[in-house]
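Hello forum,

I keep getting stuck at the same step: I have a sequence, I want structure tokens, and every attempt I make locally crashes halfway through. Rather than fight my setup again tonight, could one of you with a working pipeline run this one for me? It's a single chain of 226 residues.
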Amino acid sequence: MIAQEGEPSLRRRPISLDHVLGDAGLSNFEAKLEQFGPRGGTIIKRKWLTPYDEVHIQSGDRIIMSWDIALSENESGDYSACVVLLRRNEVYYVLEVVRGRFPFDALKQKVMEVKRRHSSHRSPTLLIEDSPISRGLIQSLREKSINVTVYKPDTDKRSRVIAQSDLFQGGSVRFPRKAPWLEDFTAELLAFPGRHDDQVDALTQGLAWGRVRRGEFSVGTVQGLN
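Reply #2:
Ran it on my machine without issues. Output:
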């Protein structure tokens, strides 16, 4: 869980998941939720958020770096977001979240930076959704001999979240107790569908790919499996 300087969702002090889950008073987090949906969560429920204290990579684990791509520096534009997951059997630990508005070159550097941070793990997966916006980035990364797994969803965003909701309900998606990005991330997740959904898109994409690898879903929508 590594904070990045200068990124909107990562500049604040770490927030505790116990604070997110607690009911004592109306926190800034809860105020955000009230702007978008029920305090208990819209599709994903607050009571389903399962914390972890620390996790160490073991043999058989897989790191998934799942990106939702947008190219924008405009303050009202869409964000690019990356959710880094550690998959251990059927459990997914959220290790890191990166979010920001980047022009092409800065975004490419950010993708490579995140990959370098997790390159000590054997065969980490860099997962990017196939879209007209992302194809130039994918090609540019491959020209640098960076392996990219391309994911093309075949359902709408709401359906994708619902398809992964059993993992949350069963405690198989786990969040750090403290992280500087935790408040914005969980607020967006619980308020989905809302104004911004880039972090949720990146998360559900990573979960769906992980389940493909475990043989739970069809592999027909994934190219470049590694």
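Residues 52 and 192 are 23 Å apart (CA to CA). If your local run keeps crashing, start a new thread with the error log.
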